[in-house]
Amino acid sequence: MAHTLDLPVRLSLSGPVRPNAEVEVRLLLGHVMETGFRHDSSGVQVAKDILQFVKVHVGDVLVFEAELGTGMAANPMFFFSFTLPPQAGDMVVSWADHQGRTGQLSRPLVYR
Fold first, then answer.
1. Who contacts 98 (Cβ-Cβ below 8 Å, separation ≥6)?
2. Which domains can be identified in the chain, with CATH numbers?
3. Nearest-10 Cα torsion for 42, 43, 47, 49
4. In terms of pTM, does the model score above 0.85?
């Protein structure tokens, strides 16, 4: 049984939001990204808690994918560019962590 991992997410587009235009995406995921290597003040090892992957789809097209590991800082931020499709649709950001928890955010693309 899969569990949901709800994260605070900031997603913004920079550039003209119209068919076939190139935009820059800024994506911030609020996650602790705990490596499992650290110990708290009492000497107890802090449990590993990292995101394994992040994917961004526009419609059925994968426009961004990242495989993350223990070297990634807390609250990872991503910047990437892509060309918007001719037809407006939904931009879907999905993620999963090493414990099998998953989550997603869907935002409609509205062309001006």
1. 48, 49, 50, 52
2. 9-34+48-108 (2.60.40.10)
3. 80
4. yes
